[in-house]
Fold this protein.
Amino acid sequence: MANYLELFISETEQYIKQLDKELLNLESNKKNLPSILEVFRVFHTIKGMAQTMGFDDLALVSHRIEDLLGDAKSKGEINSIILDFLFVVVDFLNESLQAIKDKKETPPSTEIIDIIEKLKKGEEVKIERGKKVAKEITEIRIKMEKLDKLFNLTNELMIARSRLLILSRQTGDSGLIATTETVSRHISSLQDEVMRLRMLPLLTVFEFFPRWLRDEAKRQQKGVEFAIVGGEIEVDRSIIDVLKEPLLHLLRNALDHGIQEKGTISLTAIRERERIRISVSDNGRGINLEEVRQQAIERNIITTVEAQYLNKEDLYRILVNPNFSTKKTVSTISGRGIGLDIVNSTITKLGGKLEIISEFGKGSCFTVELPLSLAIVRGMIFILNGQRFALPLSYIQETFYAEELSFKTVYHRELYPLRDEILPLVRVGEKLGYPSKPGRKSVIVSKYQGIRRGFVTDGIIGEEEIVVKKLDPLLPHTLFSGCSIHSDGLPILILDPGGLG
Amino acid sequence: MRVLIVDDAMFMRRMLADILEKGGHTVCGEASTGKEAVERYRELKPDLVTMDIIMPDMSGIEAVKEIRKIDSKAKILMVSAMGQQALVLEAVQAGALDYVVKPFQPSRVLESIERITKK
């Protein structure tokens, strides 16, 4: 028999190719009788050869397929389920032949035979074409939990890596240093890859909106066209998790306050280096800044005198003030969920910002800008009372040294004259209960919710990429947004500029 | 005996040829379709034909009928795969003298040939 094996393989290969061709013919025309007959003949021939060679599974499948094709032969038309299935069978033939070539055991025919039985009985069968080519799996599903574990492990590696680098340099051993640097490089790449695994397309959140908006618009009897752009952009899961509520609120606003009878709302995402910008814009009525000014006075948010000096940007900032709302009657949905002030504070807490652009009578555009990931941030490391702390770089505008003597006190508040600006100072150390030490200070100028403040510290170490870990939710930590482990293995608390007011 | 082998698979033709030659016969020709078989028969006037059933352009049964038209004493052995019993019967009615079913034992093929030639 062995001398026939080669001939069997090459001839069967040809027949499989022919099958492929005929099946494709049938796919474009299911009533192609010559092709049906040819498919039948090929299976018949393969059956004969396989039987002779003793490849019983292959012979059995071919034999049963002949039976299955009886109907198609007499009707002169093949049904599409059987056609789909034949593609799967071709994959099975290929697999079997490959196994024969590799002198391995041929795959069992039970699964295929099962399907044939069901098809013959007219039972419903779900055919997944290409399933049998699963040798080359291109996608698998992983539980987020497992990915998180992997992520945490790589973060631990990152921390150990930094420590290892320092220690190996201390030894002065060039071989050790070189090896450590190689290991370190690989750990960095590993972390990059793991970070990438956690990325999801924005569509994961966006896909919920069209239906929601359609239903709400219908209820309010408004004609709204909705467009989504940039749903394919991928961001870290930590961002995906927090995006839905703020965006939903902005869309609600656009629908409730922007669109009057009909109009267009667009949700547009663009990526700018390591940041993502998501805009909700509408061509509705726009924001009446005069109305905002009047209401702000009525609600005692600003004084009449202040109102005269407020520019556009200041007025937009009033929109996110918790005490403010321009809509007098609460619509059925604007009362629900979170307000614009909460959208703003949510976004700010995540190291992002909310931008508002509007033109009265033409429409509004609310843009949320966020980092692509919350898990790793660039932070400024500074010292207070000998301890290290971090502040995310996204809040920081500049730093400078200042002698304590140059600080001014007005109504118990410390200020610093920076260029033509009076900068309010915050003694971070005092808030943490540290004794204040006189001398030269490093001041970090932070902008949070539109307000610039100077955080007084004992010294600045520098910028560093920090892996953010959540603090135990049971700990009261209004001052901190998270923690991290510094390269020397010591923990660092990450300050929340919102809590330092 | 001079034998014409008709089968669409080269693999089967090779195997049959080997069996026949080992049994002392001569393979005078091969055909891979029904039509080809009829033409070959006309040219070669073989002593015996081994005939497959399912083939392109003309089935083995049609070929048996055509060959019997050329030569009413043509000796034809049907060689078919399992599951074609009805067709084998049809072939026998059309004038085939015996049949073997794939997969076959070499001895089974040779015994059949012997039986046919004695008829």
In short: Helices of chain B lie at 10-22, 34-44, 60-70, 85-94, 106-118. The mean pLDDT of chain B is 89.
